[in-house]
Design a protein that fits this description.
Strand content: under 5%
Helix content: 55-70%
Number of strands: 5
Structural class: mainly alpha
Number of helices: 24
Order of helices and strands: EHHEHHHHHHHEEHHHHHEHHHHHHHHHH
Distance between the termini: 45 Å
Number of domains: 2
Shape: globular
């Protein structure tokens, strides 16, 4: 769950472009052509731009997601008892980018086969913080840390990373099974809009303290960052700047480039980072001030130029029942969110509505990606990136090939150690300002699901209020009093403490339980409109027309094999065999 569609300020996806008209450069608006009321796709899902244009468009997708993915370690690493100056923070970022590239390529090529980017998600941070709040994982006092040797300091955070890695990898097996066995269509019939609202919204509501702590390093810089991001993404999104562009047959032309619409987050970070650099050079910020740009410079100098992340790089993952069940909350939240993106992306990219086999395969592949992320030691799972979904709607580039190129760029960048270390230098106050927008957008995304339900219903308001407020009361108290539950069994105590300390799990469970046991009409509960948005189970029939989701190779053999018609993730699933 990321900074969803912050770059979008108007409009939805246009109709697919079925013609072969020459493409315009991304983000460029012709000065001579009138604006069309129904913009068409420059490239649909199966259309491939030339390789050099594909690389440019792919790098744009990479820049769209990089801001969100590097922000995760700013919350994760302190909870791991890792210092701000530890160069291993750069390795964790590089690992996240590397795994993102691998999973994105597999998802776009063999998984759901939509042009979506998979990557680290804030949804996993909520159960992560609940797990690390247990007594055995709390960081020791700073005085104790100061006396530790370098080897002891490394083991201090690596043992916690191994706990997270095992919890992430094992809990993701549930998502893998839900997808590849086809159970996702049956189970999610009970996941209603009033389940999604507290599950998603509580991600942002739970993390507000971390946003406040980071932003408080310098409120002026943090507020300036939030204000500038708002200015670029919402107010100036239609402002264009003239650029020189080359068009085949026409030569050099002056065109208008939608800079603020495409890169509001990147521009904000660069400008505010530069401002902090000026204030550092002029000594407005005193030495060791957290907003100085040179306070963690040793991280960059000590980072390796090249480092290839590999499985078990931080040791063999450990598995505990409390960790696995707690992390399962993040897995289920990501499953629900990705399901909401699939029909949207298919429409944006000019593809057929996703059939059930593609949905099953997409969720299963996402689970497989999270397993890999756990084994690699990314400290996080994988989820569909909302920013890149928004980028398709803005740029009208829905080509699958572009995402495949983007995946290659991520893999290459993931092995350049200096690159990951650069992002550690971003001042905390700038990151805090980004958090204020990011977490707010997550809350808004969750609340947007209320459009399907009847908000005039006292029943719905009761469920909504209780499922959001009660977890915010119970879960922080459980984290502050980890020894409150005493059953006599340490494993049971730890498991219940993590479960009851994870807001998205408690809130989602309450919403799902109450909405399914309190009487209400389907229209009142929003089930009718929700079913139209996400048809699952028997409502999603494979009639053989959705060829956009066929495998890139071997379809002739798949159609000949009778057993493939009964496998939930095969393109022939539920398709009557033709004589």
């Amino acid at each position: 769950m990321e900074l969803n569609n912050v770059a979008i300020c108007d409009g939805g996806p246009g109709k697919p472009n079925e013609s072969n008209s020459s493409p315009e450069p991304v983000g460029v608006v012709p000065t001579s052509k009138p604006e069309r009321s129904k913009p068409q796709l420059l490239y649909a899902i199966n259309e491939n731009p030339v390789w050099y244009l594909s690389i440019f468009l792919a790098f744009q997708h990479y820049l769209t997601m990089i801001g969100a993915i590097v922000s995760i370690p700013f919350i994760l690493t302190p909870a791991l008892c890792m210092s701000d100056e530890d160069p291993n923070r750069g390795i964790i970022i590089s690992t996240m980018i590397f795994v993102t590239g691998i999973v994105t390529y597999f998802q776009a090529t063999w998984g759901v086969r939509l042009p979506i980017v998979q990557g680290g998600t804030i949804s996993f941070l909520v159960p992560t913080l609940a797990i690390l709040s247990l007594p055995q994982w709390k960081c020791p006092a700073q005085t104790v840390i100061d006396e530790m040797s370098e080897a002891d300091l490394e083991e201090l955070w690596q043992i916690r990373m191994r706990e997270l890695s095992g919890a992430i990898a094992v809990s993701a097996m549930v998502q893998l099974v839900l997808g590849y066995t086809g159970l996702v269509g049956k189970i999610l019939k009970y996941v209603t809009p009033l389940t999604i609202v507290p599950t998603v919204s509580l991600v942002g509501l739970t993390l507000f303290e971390h946003a406040a702590e980071t932003a408080s390093k310098h409120w002026g810089i943090a507020v300036g960052t939030t204000g500038m991001l708002t200015l670029f993404s919402q107010i100036m999104c239609d402002v264009t700047i003239p650029v020189v562009a080359y068009r085949k047959g026409s030569g050099l032309e002056i065109r208008q480039f939608q800079l603020f619409r495409l890169f509001p987050v990147l521009l904000t970070i660069i400008i505010m980072w530069g401002l902090c650099g000026i204030l550092t050079a002029t000594d407005v910020f005193p030495p060791s001030h957290p907003s100085r740009t040179d306070v963690r410079l040793n991280v960059l100098t000590s980072a390796k130029w090249f480092y290839v992340p590999y499985p078990f790089q931080f040791g063999m993952p450990s598995v505990t029942l409390s960790g696995v069940l707690g992390m399962l909350a993040g897995v289920l939240a990501c499953t629900v969110e990705s399901l909401s993106y699939y029909p949207t992306v298919s429409q944006m990219s000019g593809a057929h509505p996703p059939p059930l086999h593609a949905i099953n395969r997409g969720i299963g592949t996402e689970g497989l990606g999270t397993v890999l992320a756990g084994l690699w030691g990314a400290g996080n799972g994988t989820n569909t990136f909302g920013e890149n979904v928004g980028a398709i709607g803005v740029t009208k580039i829905g080509s699958r090939r572009v995402i495949q190129w983007a995946a290659l760029i991520m893999v290459i960048q993931g092995v350049i150690g200096k690159f990951g270390a650069i992002f550690i230098l971003i001042p905390d106050s700038v990151v805090g300002g980004i958090f204020c927008v990011m977490f707010g957008m997550i809350i808004a995304f969750g609340l947007s699901t209320l459009q399907y339900v009847d908000l005039r219903s006292a029943r719905n308001l009761y469920i909504l209020g209780l499922s959001i407020f009660f977890p915010m009361v119970l879960c922080p108290w459980m984290q502050q009093h980890p020894g409150a539950i005493k059953t006599g069994n340490e494993t049971v105590d730890s498991t219940l403490t993590v479960l009851l300390g994870t807001t998205i799990l408690v809130g989602g469970f309450l919403g799902c339980l109450l909405d399914n046991i309190i009487p209400g009409t389907p229209k009142e509960r929003g089930l009718i409109e929700w079913a139209n948005e996400m048809p699952l189970g028997d409502d999603n029939i494979n009639d053989g027309t959705a060829t956009d989701f066929d495998f890139p190779y071997g379809m002739n053999a798949v159609r000949k094999w009778k057993w493939t018609y009964h496998v939930p993730f095969m393109p022939t699933y539920k398709l009557k065999k033709q004589n």
